[in-house]
């Protein structure tokens, strides 16, 4: 389910709030989750994000393979008639599967390189992609003869960048100033992180996602323009390029979208899963190994089945927001309200002696709040997955607001439980007193 403009703003504020914590204490999302869910209870939050990252890695790789297919078709027109040897039940053609694995192999070596050393790739991306977006926007407006016909058309485009709230801290922990992270997240044309500083080196880490609202506007404009110009309704931009009678334009469009897919997989999806696995299995897995595990496991998701079924694709996006929204509400409520902007960083890395040990390493208040926050959106989610299920119209409206509903209810329930049954905490460190752990302490690449 796509985010409304208001929810999109809320997601951007969530990115800023999460990024502030990461930049202040030098911790990533899995470590932060220990403060709210417990030293062991954070497994729920970590697995929820990891599953999302694995599936999105597979989807982005498949979409990158489609981009490669467009590029090869533009260079070699005969490639468009590549013989298919797969049955319709496979939901993928031979050429699509071939391009998928070629693109998959291309990005594997890039996972070996530390994210901070890929700044030139992201710098190139942040220059090229906005130019491409403006050109595509201009083409849509000119060919559709202005804005009137565009917005009079209906569109079924949906998008979700809720997961950005959960990956922001993985990168902002390297930032020099929390304030810089907040302003860059909210106002920058590149979302959510722009400039990070590690030690004494200024590192430019661009382009996890372009600005959410700009993407939404561009998607609506281009989709509506295609309906006006060609009489075809499609949410896939690569299908739009197939309608162009210009091989150079097709190749450049495929290249730009492929660059976006690679950037997202490297900087967002695989890195998030790598951080999660490094926390769960620190003795055996660091971030780099976790990234490769993400890449290998993503093959099992069969992304072509998800991609080629609009119903399952949109249901996946909306369904997973149900699980991510309450976690976001719990984490932010715990830090900004219950703990008054303070964390004991050292205790996040201890067990029984930690103030975050709660009950055998699990904070039942967070677990209960998480479960309760799922209830209001479950009927609408079930109806979205299975259209044969009849639910009240009110349940569908609630599901349409699954992100703010989950954040508010999850945070409110957690705060209520914490007030009625308060956890016993010692003196916590203020941001000025806290010392961020070493980059090596949470299983980073250099370990």
Give the SSE string: HHHHHHHHEEEEHHHHHHHHHH
Report the uncertain regions.
153-160, 189-213, 435-447
**Quaternary organisation:** single chain
* Estimated radius of gyration: 22 Å
The CATH class of the domain at 53-302 is identified as: Mainly Alpha
Number of helices: 18
Named CATH topology of the domain at 53-302: Hydantoin permease
Can you tell me the CATH architecture of the domain at 53-302? Orthogonal Bundle
What is the number of E strands? 4
Task: Give a verbal description of the structure.
This protein is mainly alpha-helical and 447 residues long. It has a domain at 53-302: Hydantoin permease. 63% of the residues lie in helices and 3% in strands. The protein contains 18 helices and four strands. The chain has helices at residues 5-25, 29-37, 42-75, 94-111, 119-143, 148-152, 164-172, 178-187, 212-230, 237-242, 247-280, 287-297, 303-307, 310-338, 364-374, 378-385, 393-400, 402-420; strands spanning 190-191, 195-198, 201-204, 209-210. The strands form two sheets. The chain has a two-stranded antiparallel ribbon. A two-stranded antiparallel ribbon has the order 2-3. Strand 2 and strand 3 (201-204) form a beta hairpin. Helix 2 packs antiparallel against helix 3. It is globular, with a radius of gyration of 22 Å. The two termini are 39 Å apart. Mean pLDDT is 78; it is low at 153-160, 189-213 and 435-447. It comes from Mycena venus. Belongs to the purine-cytosine permease (2.A.39) family. The chain crosses the membrane at residues 6-27, 39-59, 95-115, 122-141, 180-196, 217-236, 248-268, 289-306, 312-337, 357-378, 398-421. Pfam families: Transp_cyt_pur (PF02133). It is found in: Membrane.
